[in-house]
Every structure is written in structure tokens, then in C-alpha cells.
Amino acid sequence: MPVFAGSELTCLRGDRLVFTGLEFRIAPGGALVLLGPNGSGKSSLLRVMAGLLKPLRGTLGWDGVPVSEDPDGHRSRVQYVGHLDAVKPVLTAAENLAFWAALAGAADPAANARAALDRLGVPHIAGVPGRYLSAGQKRRLNLARLLAAPATLWLLDEPTVALDRAAIALFEGLIAEHRAQGGMVVLSTHTDIATPGGEELHLDEFAPYADDEEAGDEDYEEEGAAP
Amino acid sequence: MSRFLRLVARDLRLALRQGSDATIAVMFFVLCVVLFPFGVGPEPNILARIAAGVIWVAALLASLLSLERLFQTDYEDGSLELLSLSPLPLEAAVLAKTLAHWLVTGVPLIVAAPLLAVLLNMDAEGFGVLVLTLTLGTPILSLIGAIGAALTLGARRGGVLLSLLILPLYIPVLIFGAGAIDAAINGLTPRPHLLLLAGILAAALPLAPWAGAAALRQAVE
């Protein structure tokens, strides 16, 4: 059974240590909810997990094999949903989605795209160019990518931003379904997303000590997070 | 391979629907060349003498115009992150986007060039070689430009920085491109110039995507 785990992870952004000594472990069917105040490194951790960002120290392992030894394999099992929706204004929703499905290697990307839009409850936007979509519709389109281009590990950075309540409920169902099939989910959120049996990771526990903070860090709201 | 072609097709479709990049590049090219007879006077001998250089310099400048946009939109809307996470190697993605850029902005220049050569009273001996040098040279411009476009991603005034970074690297292409045409007009063989251009292209084909991908990885961090 594959296990996705990280140990001793330290992340540096600019000249600021975001978190240090971070450990996590996800088994198939598991969910990890990242919690913490603004600037505590939730997005950075997700980017590290995706391989977009190299950790300063520490290792990520998939089934005991370091991810850095098999970056191609890692990319093929990850789907990342970030803050940006990656929707091209001149392509229709279905074209946008089909492109990402094709890039992930889907046999029939157009059919995948239609089915995914159906599941997300927005089949009517299939022919609408990206520039006419609302923020919530763009977000649903971005989440539809998870279904159109299936991957084992979902990395979701505040996935429910701009979603209405019905869509959040729908999305919780998709997560449960994905986990039931042995998939893994890591998500960061400030609202409640139901992930029964999911583990929580509080990032402020891994914040570096206060003496690492120097004058000029006043911009960060949560200075008192470190002991 | 099919992923590569998908990306090329998607970029071509985007360019086709937005429509501006290709026409702007070729219009700029034509206008730039047309300015010279006004500036240096309509003396046919002088125009014929400078035709090769003028057309090549205008081609360099025209290809610079749209380069800034090569990765910019993908960077801003988050597509670049997803591209770098897709199973398609980032080097191949850079090559695909560069190929699409060349098809959209380079090929129209090649088509327009003979017309401009007539306008500048270029010797008919040079026409074939002009098209040949542009066919070999414009892909090099797109490839070298892709490195610059990737390096200047996220920089303020990236377009100006890009020109300063890239134009000096275009000099060898300009020398051999214009040199080949001059050689043909003067009854010499353009072969050495063309071979050197082909050599630069052969070197740029693997190196530029590799360097561009390295720069993009920095940009998405």
C-alpha cells in the first residue's frame, strides 16, 4: 500500500523560515487538513508536496522512495488545485478542461471533460468561453479537473473559495468518493469542509522560534504564533 | 508526442482566437521596412545595397514584439504551474510553446519578406536565399527569445529587459542571415553562411528549451 509521507521538512520563503521540522503521513483513503493562520505556510507546504517548491531540508517519500528520485512518477500521481484557476478566457470551459485531461493522458479528453462538468453540476457552461464565467464557475471548472484527469493524490489549496453551499456539499461528496477508492487528499482551508476520519495538521506548531524573526517582519499578521 | 502536439494546438488556437499577435508582428515588420526609403531617400542603388540588412533587422525587432507574452499569460493565470506538474516534461512544453510562437509570428515574416525585398529593389538573385535564411533564422529567434521570456517572467518592465537581454544574442543570426544574402547577390556562394545558421539552429533546438525550462522552474517557485 503506497504511503505519502514527509519528514523533517523545512521551508524557506525569501529569507523567512515558514515552517521547520514538519512531519506528516497519509495512507490510502486518508485525508490531511492543513490548518493555521495566514502566512503559516499552508500553501507553501502544498507546493512542496506537489514538487513546485523545493524544501530547504527534509524529504518527501512515496512508499518509502524519495520523491526527488522519481519526479516524473510523482507528477503523474498528483493533481494540484491552487489559488489561480488556470482558465483561458478565449477557450470554452469544455476546451479548457479537455486540454488538461489530454495533457494528463486521458484517452478521450472531450468525453472526460463533459462527464466532469456534469458531476460538478455545471454542464451548461461547457460551451461558454472562460471570460464569461463567474468566480464560482471558474472554481468548479478547476475542481472538475480532478475528475477529468484522475490522479491518486489531490493537493487542494483552499478549494472552496467562491463556491456556494450546494457546491461545497457536492465537493465533500467527491472527496469522500475519491478516498473510498483509495485516493489521498491534502487540503488547506479556513472554512469547514467535512472530511470524516481525516487528520488535522496545525502548521503553527511547526513555526520557527521567535528569535528567528528579525525586525522588518511586522508585515506578517501572526507574529505571536511562535512560543 | 501527442501531449506535445496538444500543447502546440492549444497555443495555436489561443493565438487564432485572440488574433492580434500574428498580425501585429507582421504589420510591424512591414512598416519598419517601409520607413527606410523615407529615411534614406528613394535612391534605388542605396536601397538595394541595404535591403538585406534592413529586412533582417526588422525581422529581429518584429519577433521581439510578441515574445514577452510567450509565458506571461500562462504564468499569470496559473497554467504554468499546472504545465510544470503535468507528465509532459517542462522542456518539451517550452519547445511546444516556442514552436507555436514561431508558427504564429515567424512564418508570416517569411511570407512577407519577398514582397519587402521587391519594395527595396533587392537583386532578384537574393530572393531565394532571403527566404532560406529567414526559414533557418526565425526559429532561432523564437528559441533564444524563449530563454529571455522565461528569465524575465515576473520582472517589472519585463519587455524592455527582455529586449536588452536578447538583442545582443541575436547578433550572430543577423550577421550570417544578412551575409548569406549579400554573398548570393555578389555572385558568391551563400553556403557557408547557411551552414552556420543551420548549426546555430541545431544547437539552439536542445539548449534553449533546457535553459528555458530551468528558468520557468525558478519562476513558479
TrEMBL record, chain A:
Bias (Acidic residues) ranges: 210-227
Classification via SUPFAM superfamilies: P-loop containing nucleoside triphosphate hydrolases (SSF52540)
Xref: SMART domains: AAA
Keywords (A to Z) from UniProt: ATP-binding, Cytochrome c-type biogenesis, Membrane, Nucleotide-binding, Translocase, Transport
Gene Ontology BP annotations: cytochrome complex assembly
Keyword Repressor annotated: no
Region (Disordered): 197-227
Protein name from the UniProt record: Heme exporter protein A
Coiled coil: none
PROSITE patterns per the UniProt record, alphabetical: ABC_TRANSPORTER_1, ABC_TRANSPORTER_2
Pfam assignment, any one: ABC_tran
Leader sequence segment: none
Organism expressing this protein natively: Azospirillum oryzae
Residue ranges annotated for the ABC transporter domain, each copy included: 4-227
Molecular function, one GO term: ATP hydrolysis activity
Automatic annotation (TrEMBL), chain B:
Membrane topology: Multi-pass membrane protein
Listed Pfam families: CcmB (PF03379)
Compartment(s) of residence: Cell inner membrane
GO cellular component annotations of the record: plasma membrane
Keywords annotated in UniProt: Cell inner membrane, Cell membrane, Cytochrome c-type biogenesis, Membrane, Transmembrane, Transmembrane helix, Transport
Transmembrane segment boundaries: 21-40, 46-67, 99-120, 126-153, 160-181, 193-216
Superkingdom per UniProt: Bacteria
GO biological process, one term: cytochrome complex assembly
Main location: membrane
A molecular-function term among this protein's GO annotations: heme transmembrane transporter activity
Functional description taken from the UniProt entry: Required for the export of heme to the periplasm for the biogenesis of c-type cytochromes.
UniProt similarity note: Belongs to the CcmB/CycW/HelB family.
Protein name: Heme exporter protein B
